[in-house]
Write a structure and sequence with these properties.
6-stranded antiparallel sheet; 6 strands; alpha+beta; 3 helices
């Protein structure tokens, strides 16, 4: 499968499975995918996950139809980054429940539910 244009081409990323992400990453936002797929189970097969050589970050791309967006978990800045080709936002500790807030953003912005 072709690499998403949402991912920085200068990053040396390796694709990994959802299970590998769950096993290696326990930083900020680590429950986002579990909670997202409980809330919207049909979204799971549309996600691809990536890691970089010298980073603990998790990069993921969700693509279905013409819709494509990214989620990045960054343990150093304690942010969940969400973006597409025209928009970017960061959700962090300043939100009471950052994972829930991010899921609501996905529902409203991308899924229109």
């Amino acid at each position: 499968m072709r690499r998403s244009s949402l991912l920085n081409p200068s990053l040396c990323l390796t694709e990994e499975s959802e299970t590998e992400v769950q096993e290696r990453y326990s930083g900020f936002g680590s429950e986002i995918f579990r909670r997202l797929f409980v809330s919207i189970p049909w979204l799971r097969p549309h996600f691809r996950f990536f890691k970089a050589e010298n980073s603990d970050d998790v990069w993921s791309i969700c693509k279905f139809g013409d819709l494509e967006f990214g989620l990045q978990l960054d343990p150093d800045t304690c942010c969940i980054c969400i973006w597409d080709h025209n928009w970017h936002d960061e959700v962090g500790k300043w939100i009471e429940d950052p994972e829930k807030f991010t899921i609501e953003l996905i529902k409203e912005r991308y899924l229109k539910i």
